[in-house]
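Figure 2 data, in text form.
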Amino acid sequence: MDSGLAALLGAAIGSVATLGAAMVNGGSQARSQHAQQSRQHRRDAYARYLGPSTTATSPWTPSWPRCVPTTPTGPSSTS
């Protein structure tokens, strides 16, 4: 086999393989992007649905403030 013909054949095979990989990768990216958009739409719909319910008060919600533990602010007595 002539070296020029081998180089031409190698370039052709490399080009076909590169195009095939690009098509596979492009399809995978399109599916991934579509799934991301679907998740975003679902997330937005849940936020719109739950938005008013998170600001409304429930009869079971206590009216007093919650007890939140605080850290001591004075000097520490640990030695």
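Caption note: The helical segments are 3-55.
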